[in-house]
Amino acid sequence: MKKIWHLLTILGIVLVSLGTLSGCSSVAKKDVLKADQESNRITWGVKADTRLFGLENIRTGKLEGFEIDLAKAMTKEILGPKGKATFVPVTSSTRVPLLKNGNIDAIMATMTITPEREKQVDFTKSYFDAVQSLLVKKGSPVKNIQDLNKAGEVILGVSGSNSVKNVAKYAPKAKVLQLSDYAQAMTALKSKQGNALTTDNGILYGMASENPGYEVVGGNFTKEPYGIAVNKNQEPFRNKLNWALERLEKNGTYNRLLLKWFGNVKGFNYQEMKR
Ligand code: GLU
To answer: What architecture (CATH level 2) is domain 129-224?
Structure first.
């Protein structure tokens, strides 16, 4: 009897492993560009809680922001005027798993190109050059990241973001409190659970515009170039995305979208970001 149970257990493990392997390989084997051309649709992983980049409009339920507009324009460029962009909300920690398991075709969600991430996914060239800053309550004694490099200081960030990793480098003495998304991080700052919130300047400007009692400080202590992430072995898709991006930069669409979203943002240098 014992032997039979043993055999059944081993059989179960083998079946589960085979299932997992074939599941993974079907994602890896898929030619995303071809499949999207056939379905006339690109499925993008985007932020839904990040003003200026990807934010859900509570009245209409629609997503709005620079990345949403850019993803729509790139979809039309690649698939033609009838091509459809579908959006799946992601957070900093769910975006790579959702890409890996094939739920989304590409990530356009304030994601910095880093060597560590390049081990898992492939990136297009940068489509937005952000830098990391701090958001603090107006009048706060915190003026830069060095001010936070002391025991007892608490910095708020989002798990899965590059920003929290950078804090370990620039303010190793501070404690980092990681929230699951930027909406929660802002709520934590307002309820004084930390002395500053850290992430990229563009995201922080979006928060400051909604919360006039808060301001962006700290200059730029890192470079955070955003890339569109795709799965490994999707060269035709990545090449097409780079091609579409270049076309939108050349024909003025990119600058038009940059002006639409960042032209009136206090502290943001539109002229410097133009392409
Ligand atoms: N750009 C940084 C990152 O990729 C912070 C923004 C985010 O959390 O998406 O991690």
So the answer is: 3-Layer(aba) Sandwich (3.40)
